[in-house]
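User: Hey, quick favor. My workstation is busy. Could you predict this chain's structure for me?
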Amino acid sequence: MKRGRSTAFPAPEAFALTSSADPDEIAEELEALATRTQLPHFVKLAKAARQPGPGQRSAERVDRARQRNDALRRLAAFYPGSRRRQCVDILALLRRYEEGAWRLHDSKLTAMPTRYGGTAFEEAFR
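Assistant: No problem, here it is.
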């Protein structure tokens, strides 16, 4: 019996898999393989490719972290000094806001109070 490549199915088109490869692109390639070869395991692999792997963040989690970081940068603009000093001041503001206005009434509001516009409390409210 001769060993080697089977000619029963067409060879897949080549594409590179890297750590920065788009999971949707990989899944589309696997779905195309499933269609061409009629092998169901490619469909299962395509579903798995769209899920974040161990140690990876989902797109939603990456977006939430980006939004948080952007908000912290906007808050830092209100406080001069070193990064450490900014962190201390932001933490103090957020704790004071959480224990005061947020707990007492702001948490029940659907819109930000207009008096917060252009202040550090605008970011704290968000």
